[in-house]
Amino acid sequence: MALVLVTGAAGGLGRGTADALAAEGHDVVVHVRNRFRLADADDTARWRGVVTGDLADLDEIRDVARQAAGFGRFDAVIHNAGVMNRPEDVTVNTVAPYLLTALMDKPARLVYLSSSMHQTGSTDLRRLAVGSASYDDTKLWVTALALAVASRWEGTSSHAVDPGWVPTRMGGRGAPDDLTAGHETQAWLATHDDVTPSTGGYWYHRQTRTPHPATQDEQFQAQLLQALERHTGVALD
Fold this sequence. Notes:
Blueprint: E1 3-6, H1 12-23, E2 27-32, H2 42-45, E3 49-52, H3 58-69, E4 76-79, H4 89-103, E5 109-113, H5 126-130, H6 135-152, E6 157-161, H7 179-191, E7 202-204, E8 207-208, H8 218-232
Parallel strand pairs: 1-2, 1-4, 2-3, 4-5, 5-6, 6-7
Antiparallel strand pairs: 7-8
Keywords: Oxidoreductase
Pfam families: adh_short
Protein name: Putative oxidoreductase
């Protein structure tokens, strides 16, 4: 069984992913912004552990990495946490996955939450530095991050997942896509070997799709990693 960290697991896609993994017998460590987000006793009994921290704050992101290190090297990390149309979009959606990836021991598998809206994101990385990025921008960048890691880290698979427009607090009750299918793809990529391609995929409901061309462009990937290193002071090995 695998040891898996799921960020943003208090509800929605993250909670569904964590529940599915635990039901399969995996050791799941969940990340939540604070423990009040886990309302019931059962919410902690089923997990291997809980790490807490606000992924909109760089110091707290670093602390989440320190807490996670206490569990040892993870088999898989699912960077599920996300926000939409808030001032902290870029930090939660792009910077936090980057910084956690850079600070934690390399897992065997990495999964990053993308969105179909990344297709209309901008490659203007000045928006990252000044904090003016849109949700679409942040999802383009995190998708490029996932594919950059895939090409750089031998022995670690890395994928991006579009869960669809699903009925979560972010997506709204009227969202038309299947919530279960949204989180099942994340759990599958984190724990199964029968995945083709084995790394560098952009997925929707267990099927690969073609991402924005910039996400696969090595020059843009390098520029993104440089911008994130400048922003955080931490390099990706």
